[in-house]
Amino acid sequence: MRHWTLDDIPWGAFDPARVDPELLRAIKAAALVEGNADDYVRYLKNVFGGDAAFCAAADQWGAEENQHGAALARWCELADPSFSYEQAMARFRANFRLPLDVTASVRGSLAGELITRCVVECGTSSFYSAIRDATDEPVLKAVAHKIAGDEFRHYKLFETHLRRYQPREGLSLVRRLRLAIGRVQEASDDELAMAYWCANQPPEPYDRKRHSDAYAARAWRLYRFGHVQRGVGMALKAVGLNPQGRLSALLARFGYRFLAWKAARLELA
Question: What CA–CA distance (Å, rounded) separates 28 from 36?
Fold first, then answer.
């Protein structure tokens, strides 16, 4: 099946009157994170250096992630002609770097690395689904729809390789849960906060908490219960639990209420 390209996006349908300026700020940050995939590919190939099949899959994954960045960047430059993706990306790369000189996973195991990658894809698939359902700007809706589909496929890609490694390494359920929860907590780490600061050039100096909250205030308000429910189910499946059981339903309700509460408390600063 042919993968989509930028030419498949209906750029001519762009409607500036339907651009949400606050959502635009979050999309600018997301474009930088998506477009920084080459560093992630290098890291993953260092870690999985003896696995040719996974390294080939990582290359394809990285190419698709970079395309996401390019699509989001093009939309941002339509919505805000003063925005330069190239300049924002240069700032981001100057201020945020992954550990590229490692040869072992920072998660302590290859199965653990794949669990955290699955959790990331749960989040991104839910995020772009939420954007698609929240926006009425036709081009952004089309871009978000394409990316959400890719991120779901990427989740399945990493999950497939996880099923190869988990029997070899035998990570306990407790360890798997800790890895998944830890990666969720990292959503407030430097990457998104720094991307937000670099993309939007606020006048104040970089502050991780301030700019993490600024990003979250714009992103979390988009979520509906179904987005959270699907993401929770995917995450539980990755750690080996029932994605549709009572625990999944409980966590989905709690997660949605927490996001709604947190979004209401955050100011659009």
Answer: 13
Q: Which long-range contacts (CB under 8 A, 24 or more apart) does 95-99 make?
A: 95/194, 95/198, 95/206, 96/36, 96/190, 96/191, 96/194, 96/195, 96/198, 97/39, 98/39, 98/40, 98/42, 98/43, 99/43
CA dist 228 → 33, 122, 200 (Å):
21, 9, 27
Distance CA 55, CA 41 (A): 8
Q: How far apart are CA 164 and CA 19, in angstroms?
A: 44
**Could you tell me the sign of the dihedral formed by the alpha carbons of 8, 11, 13, 14, in that order?**
positive
Confidence at residue 1, expressed as pLDDT on a 0 to 100 scale: 66
Query: Are 73 and 85 a contacting pair, CB within 8 Å?
Result: yes
Structural domains present in the chain: 18-208 (1.20.1260)
Biggest alpha carbon distance in the chain? 54
pLDDT tens digits, 29-71: 999 999 999 999 999 999 999 899 999 999 999 999 999 999 9
Contact 244, 235 (CB under 8 A): no
* High-pLDDT (> 70) share of the chain, %: 98
Q: Which residue in 133, 97, 98, 114 sits closest to 48, CA to CA?
A: 114
